[in-house]
Each structure stands twice: as structure tokens, then as C-alpha cells.
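ok so for the tutorial part 2 we go from a plain amino acid sequence to predicted C-alpha cells. step 1 is just haveing the sequence, like this:
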Amino acid sequence: MLTVKDIRSVYPAKIAYTERNIIRANIALDFLWEERCKERVVNYTGDRSGSCKFAALLSRSLFGGRLVGNQEHIFTINGFDIIDLNNSQKDVMDLKDLAHVRLDQELAHKDYRDALSSCLPRVNKWEQWVLDGLNK
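step 2 — the prediction. this is what the C-alpha cells look like for a chain of 136 residues:
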């Protein structure tokens, strides 16, 4: 289970935040979300709405930074840069300016941390896929 310290900690980057690596991370998220949709017997349409917990955890793990967000959306920051792999997803675009409002204390609630923790095995699998693919 993720602790409050885990949520608030700044993680080091494993790979550079480059266009190539962002594309690879987004491909991994597409595969991850398609895999999850199949398990839930939901048709995957290419829209990753609802996947921000996975996206934020993958982003933090790969590109470093800290988890931040609000009740509706979670993303990462690294220094002053917002890193949001779901920025182009419908649910995030629908939030408009509210998508990146920071109410970070919301992330510390036990139920939210439990939900994030449940995402970690899948995130770790696809993080490794990204890293393995970059070494080929």
C-alpha cells in the first residue's frame, strides 16, 4: 500500500522526458488500458478516460517527479513542469482549466491511496515494457 510519504515523495527519473520516450509511454498506456478494458469486458475505443491513476504512476516512475492533483484528476510535476500523459484524453479535456488544479491533500486519503496501490502491479509491468523497448 502506498503511504502518504510515497505520495508526497519526489521520485528520480529513470529515462529522459523526450518526445520518443513520451510516445513509448503513451503506447504502453494504450496497451495497459486495453488490457484493463478486456478484463472488465468493456470495448476499448482508444479513449483512456478514467486511466489517470495509471498514467500518473507510470509517468512518475519513468520521468520522475511527484504525484499531484485533485479529486477528479491526478498527474505529476517535475520541478515546475506538469507531466500529464492523459492531457489529450476526453475526460481531462472536459475538465479544462480545472484538470490541473492542485488539491494535493486529496491524494493522501487512505481510500485514494488504496486505489492507487491497486494500479501498481499493472503499472510496473508496462513500465518494464517501456524500459525494455528503449534498450533494443
